[in-house]
Each structure stands twice: as structure tokens, then as C-alpha cells.
Specification:
- Helix 9 crosses helix 10 and helix 12 packs across helix 13.
- It contains 13 helices and no strands.
- The model has no long low-confidence stretch (mean pLDDT 80).
- Helix content is 69%, strand content 0%.
Length: 325
């Protein structure tokens, strides 16, 4: 899966980061003895196999010299190197248990985490060419250039040029009050994890995914799709928690159902308005396709075949007009 994800999108190092965060925070879910080490070994094995497959596939299918350069764009050695570093990091986490030197307790888990992170970070520093793709990835993640600021997927949902009031209204029309349900779920999961003292690895995964991607989509539109899964899961969990509260407060089924229906309608009403409006108006793509079909028929001058367009319309120009963009 990691191999295919890197061939699809070079920013898939983000997925590695999410998996590493879950493994690093694993002790907080109070797993049975040895469970964290098994998770670290699984991540080490998966990342190591992905590094090998990415190296072989880049050598066979990539352009000449692909493995001699580091880049976040195009085929390079960066994906294989990133997977290899995560494999080293997670392997070092599991090493004390394999060597029989493991000690129980949160303090020792923290020591293992610091040592593994320092060692793998030191190895990364020995690869100077790794610096540029990492910085480039951070620039993309923060829309840290003037050009990236013009691309819709790198535009912030909040704290952008439109103003806070307009952005909050746009967010409300897109997702309604569902983020509030998500917050209810996160706080409830954290409370239940602390109160129960039982193994809650699934809860930890939901909290990590929601904690990374839901705030991420407020900063960049690009993370909308990534936030959809944790938002859906956390909304279901938050809705279940509120339903239990409603049943406890209003034991009569009809009253509880009426209250739940009212709250659900209030949470989804803004989204419904947006959905109906989008169905009634013609899609922007229809007008764009008509325009690009005309562009396709225009005579081309040698050396001036290209079409200047926003990044968001680049694929439309390539596919419909058949012109370089």
C-alpha cells in the first residue's frame, strides 16, 4: 500500500508520519504487554518492504538516474529513503524487546522513543540531499510561496484573505455543525481512555487521525478528502454519545427521538442548503468545457501553443483542449 501510494502521490510521506505518530503514542492507549512492540515491528516490516519495492520500481520504471537524486516531485530516491528511515526508527523501538532488554513503564517507553528518534534523525542528517525535499514538502504543507498561495487546494479555509466571517460562513455551508460532533467524540474518547484503563488502540487511532486531518483541512483545502474519514467516524461516535445523553435525560423513546431528530436537522441544515444550491445551478465545468472546445479549434502559432491557466484548471486544459498548459 505504501509503495502504490508513493507512486500515486509523493506527499505520501504524510501517511508514514501518521503511522509513526500512532505507534509513538501507542503506550497512551494502555495496550497489553508487548502490543506496542508488535505494532513497531509491523511498521518496521511494512516500511522496509515498501523501501525495497520503491527502490526496485524506481530503478526499473523510473527515468535514468532516478535513484541518484532526491525530490518530492517526480521519480527519485526520496520515497524509498523516507520508508527506510521510518523502518529504522520503528525497528529501534522494537529492538529492546527483541534483545530481551525491555523494561515496563511509561518512562522507559519515553526513553526508547527519544533514543530511536535521535538515532534515525542522526542518520537523516547524514544524507544532505534529503534536506531539499523535506523543506519543499513543508513549503507545500504551509503554502509557503507566492505561487502556492494562488492554488485553491493550498488555500486556507480559515485565516485567509476572504476574512474570518466569510470563511466561517463557507465552512458552515460545507460541513454544517458536524465538527462540533467530532469534538464531542474526541473529548469523550479521551475521557473514556483515561477512566477505563483498558486497551483502546482503536480510539487512539481515531483521535490521531482527527487531530491531524481535521485541523489540517482548516489550514489547507487539500486536506478536505483526508479529513472526510476521521470526520465521519468521529461524528458517528459523537452522535452515539449525544444519543446516550438524550436517552438518559428523556427516557421516553418518542421524546428522545424528537430531540435527536431536531439536533440532527440543525447540524445538517447548512449542508443541505449547499447541496440543493449546487444541484440547481449549472456546474462551472460545463462552461469551462465549452470554452476549451473553442480553444482546441483555434489555430496554433509555433512556440505559442500553450494556454495560461490557473493550476486548478490545468487538467481541464490538457484533456479537453489538448494544449500544453
Amino acid at each position: 500500500a505504501l509503495t502504490l501510494s508513493f507512486w500515486n502521490w509523493h506527499g505520501s510521506a504524510l501517511y508514514l508520519g501518521v503511522l509513526a505518530v500512532i505507534v509513538a503514542l501507542y503506550p497512551l492507549s494502555r495496550p497489553p504487554e508487548g502490543e506496542r512492540d508488535r505494532a513497531a515491528r509491523a511498521l518496521a516490516a511494512g516500511a522496509a518492504v515498501a523501501a525495497i519495492l520503491l527502490g526496485i520500481s524506481a530503478l526499473v520504471l523510473g527515468p535514468p538516474g532516478a535513484l541518484s537524486r532526491m525530490s518530492i516531485g517526480g521519480i527519485s530516491a526520496f520515497p524509498a529513503t523516507a520508508c527506510a528511515l521510518v523502518a529504522v526508527w520503528s525497528g529501534l523501538l522494537a529492538l529492546p524487546a527483541l534483545a530481551g532488554a525491555h523494561r515496563a513503564g511509561t518512562r522507559w517507553r519515553l526513553v526508547e522513543l527519544v533514543v530511536a528518534s535521535a538515532a534515525s534523525g542522526g542518520i537523516a542528517l547524514l544524507i544532505p540531499s534529503l534536506r531539499e525535499p523535506v523543506l519543499e514538502g513543508l513549503r507545500h504543507a504551509s503554502a509557503g510561496t507566492v505561487w502556492l498561495g494562488t492554488v485553491h487546494e493550498f488555500a486556507p479555509r480559515l485565516l485567509g484573505p476572504a476574512g474570518v466571517r466569510a470563511e466561517l460562513l463557507g465552512l458552515l455551508l460545507d460541513v454544517g455543525l458536524l465538527p462540533l460532533l467530532s469534538l464531542v467524540a474526541v473529548f469523550d474518547l479521551v475521557y473514556r481512555l483515561r477512566a477505563s484503563g483498558t486497551h483502546r488502540t482503536g480510539f487512539l487511532s481515531v483521535v490521531v487521525l482527527a487531530g491531524i486531518f481535521i485541523p489540517g483541512t482548516l489550514l489547507l483545502h487539500r486536506f478536505d478528502l483526508y479529513a472526510a474519514v476521521p470526520l465521519a467516524i468521529s461524528c458517528a461516535l459523537g452522535g452515539a454519545r449525544i444519543w446516550r445523553w438524550i436517552q438518559a435525560r428523556w427516557p421516553r423513546t418518542r421524546v428522545a427521538g424528537a430531540v435527536a431528530t431536531t439536533l440532527t436537522a440543525a447540524a445538517l441544515a447548512p449542508c443541505a442548503v449547499t447541496a440543493v444550491e449546487s444541484l440547481l445551478r449549472p456546474p462551472v465545468e460545463e462552461e469551462l468545457v465549452k470554452l476549451l472546445n473553442r480553444v482546441r479549434l483555434l489555430p496554433m502559432r509555433e512556440g505559442r501553443e500553450g494556454v495560461l491557466a490557473r493550476w486548478d484548471r490545468g487538467h481541464h486544459v490538457l484533456h479537453v483542449a489538448g494544449r500544453p498548459v
